[in-house]
Amino acid sequence: MKRITILIADDEVEIADLVAMHLEKEGYNYIKVSDGKEAIRVISDQKIDLAILDIMMPELNGYEVTRQIREKYQMPIIFLSAKSSDLDKISGLVMGADDYMTKPFNPMELVARVNAQLRRAMQLNQASNESILEVGGLTIYPDQRKVILYDEAIELTPKEFDILVLLAGHSQKVFSAESIFQNVWGEAYYEMGNNTVMVHIRTLRKKLGEDKNKNKFITTVWGVGYKFNG
Questions:
Q1: CB 199 within 8 A of CB 90
Q2: What are the residue ranges of helices labelled H in the chain?
Q3: In what residue span(s) does the OmpR/PhoB-type domain sit (predicted)?
Q4: Which of 27, 183, 184, 220 has the most CB atoms around its CB within 10 Å?
Q5: For residue 138, how many other CB atoms are within 10 A of its CB?
Q6: Interatomic CA distance for residues 213 and 47, integer angstroms
Q7: Is the pTM of the predicted complex or chain greater than 0.70?
Q8: Could you tell me the residue ranges of all domains in the chain?
């Protein structure tokens, strides 16, 4: 079996070397780069299974690298950054990252999170027999991770797509923000998890055209959570 390859993008050599050492012990291949442009070049040229990105990098910062990755690829992305505020974490997740760790960090915890994200990605890729979901001009293809709205494809981040599939796959069931976070992010709920879910729901609604169309696919059940109108 081909070994998994992980991209480490960090301009702090000591940090990159530490991460690489622990990933190698776990049996992973790795590629180290020190700036955002080089990260994009490597991803364009090689098969990368997961990316670990610093935010504050030369050439292109981690946010911009994530934005460009998400235009073409679905690989898991973990931010590893010295930026530690709740706003930084939410911004990273909204940009399309799957996880966020702050420096200083425990290398073994990072490896555990890498393993979790790779397992989740594998499970999603294997879910190829799921039914197509259709409602009110919206068609969701879970196996292709594709969404068509009124005959036009709409681009969703991986987390937006996972939220949509979760809600649409359980039409009329009300999900709390905590339940959505645990199902989609696959980790324990934390203090700012509600804001993270709320921001993703807001951007998802905008992409679904709820500000322009009569259809309201996602309804807020005040004081409880969210449900899909199917």
A1: yes
A2: 13-25, 36-45, 62-70, 86-95, 107-126, 158-168, 177-185, 193-207
A3: 130-230
A4: 184
A5: 20
A6: 39
A7: no
A8: 5-126, 133-228
